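Quick one, tokens below:
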């Protein structure tokens, strides 16, 4: 079985918005070449919110959300995840929202967190942060 990978909002947004051709290509290749992708409702909400600002229509946003739900495991936010996020903020000085991303990845038993927002190569409680858009 392939290890699970949590994919942060910024990776999806480069895939869908083409703000940077190089980063869009890197995001596309990463998504295509990896299996067992995991996201959280936070990621879904962030992606949909930014797509709205980028002038996507509601039907287009629904299609993106439905596609993500179909291809990814979507982890729920629980009381335990919120508590873990708080402990991670205290220990690692993460931002509020980054701590929830990391906590969701850990709660989903992911081995890798694909993101652009955190230090490449950082290990958090066994989770490896990879900046896949370098």
């Amino acid at each position: 079985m392939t290890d699970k990978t949590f994919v942060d909002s910024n990776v999806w947004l480069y895939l869908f918005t083409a703000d940077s051709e190089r980063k869009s290509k890197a995001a596309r290749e990463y998504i295509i070449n990896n299996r067992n992708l995991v996201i959280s409702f936070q990621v879904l909400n962030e992606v949909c919110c930014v797509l709205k600002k980028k002038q996507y229509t509601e039907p287009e946003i629904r299609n993106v959300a439905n596609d993500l739900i179909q291809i990814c495991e979507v982890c729920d936010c629980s009381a335990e995840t919120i508590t873990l996020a708080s402990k991670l903020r205290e220990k690692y000085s993460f931002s509020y929202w980054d701590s929830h991303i990391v906590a969701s990845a850990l709660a989903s038993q992911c081995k890798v967190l694909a993101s652009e927002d955190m230090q490449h190569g950082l290990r958090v409680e066994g989770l490896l942060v990879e900046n896949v858009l370098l």
